[in-house]
Design goal:
Layout (H helix, E strand, L loop, with lengths): L4 H25 L8 E11 L4 E9 L4 E6 L2 E5 L1 H4 L8 E10 L3 H4 L17
Length: 125
């Protein structure tokens, strides 16, 4: 069996060129996105196991520069250290996180606020 050496060399050169092109495209894929800063907006926490457990969420209030913990009917301001504490030893850990573009945070999201004077459905600005 005779192998055409010229065809093999051409194939190798073509594959190398394709690989270089793909590497370049991978590098460029996120270059444009680097100019946009992202901020952590919320952290969903789960304590328990697959069969049962409890969920709560921390939401960042960009306007007030503070974190809130929403746990069932209780809402409380918390220190940032609480949000980032490693509670995995206690069976709690981040389940889901959301981010938002930093330059649009104040325009796109607003932490939930309720009038707790008795009417839980009355939202206030």
């Amino acid at each position: 069996m005779r192998v055409n050496h010229s065809n093999q060399v051409n194939l190798i050169v073509e594959l190398d060129r394709d690989a270089d092109n793909l590497k370049s495209r991978l590098k460029q894929q996120f270059t444009d996105r680097r100019q946009h800063g992202y901020r952590l907006h919320s952290v969903f926490i789960h304590r328990g196991d697959v069969a049962h457990g409890h969920y709560w969420i921390y939401i960042y209030d960009f306007a007030g520069n503070r974190w809130f913990k929403y746990n069932d009917e209780q809402v409380a301001e918390v220190d940032e250290k609480v949000v980032f504490a490693n509670d995995s030893a206690e069976g709690a850990g981040p389940y889901f996180v959301t981010y938002i573009k930093e330059d649009a945070a104040n325009d796109l999201v607003e932490a939930l606020k309720r009038d707790l004077s008795g009417n839980l459905m009355s939202f206030v600005e």
